[in-house]
């Protein structure tokens, strides 16, 4: 199991220069990005970056949320409700009434589809041959299968797999 904290994260500017992404975990393969966990603040309407061949799940972890509009796509991003969408569709944040912080899970198409669940408490069983990544919003104990880990808020515990 790997435990990552804020000291392990990388902060990168957006391509449009209007914000920053906190890259928490990234794994690349021969074809490019395989997995990425990140956070970003959405403070105004605007275009999201396009990630060809990537499946995304976005979860608002702080703030009121916003809408995502794209080619035939309208998604409401409410707090703590994961929203899945393809990374290669042009998409914009709209109805941004106040700043929101989002948590993104991005996985290369062809790998197991990303799944995000919000747990208030309890244990998580790691699937056989799979990978579990947990983001702790508050300090406390995380349980992955039979392993316990005490973590500070906004840290990640990763059970390796694939």
Automatic annotation (TrEMBL):
Stretch forming the signal peptide: none
Xref: SUPFAM superfamilies: RmlC-like cupins (SSF51182)
Gene3D superfamilies: Jelly Rolls
Highest rank taxon of the organism: Bacteria
Pfam families: HutD
Name of the protein this chain belongs to: HutD family protein
């Amino acid at each position: 199991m790997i435990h990552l904290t804020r000291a392990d994260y990388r902060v990168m500017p957006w391509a449009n220069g209007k914000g920053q992404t906190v890259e928490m975990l990234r794994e690349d393969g021969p074809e490019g990005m395989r997995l990425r966990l990140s956070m970003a603040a959405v403070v105004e309407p605007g275009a999201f970056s396009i990630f060809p061949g990537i499946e995304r799940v976005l979860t608002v972890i702080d703030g009121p949320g916003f809408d995502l509009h794209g080619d035939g796509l309208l998604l409401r991003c409410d707090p703590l409700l994961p929203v899945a969408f393809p990374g290669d569709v042009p998409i914009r944040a709209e109805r941004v009434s106040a700043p929101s912080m989002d948590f993104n899970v991005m996985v290369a198409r062809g790998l197991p589809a990303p799944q995000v669940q919000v747990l208030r408490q309890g244990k998580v069983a790691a699937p056989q041959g799979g990978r579990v990544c947990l983001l702790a919003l508050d300090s406390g104990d995380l349980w992955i299968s039979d392993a316990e880990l005490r973590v500070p808020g906004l840290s990640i515990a990763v059970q390796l797999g694939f």
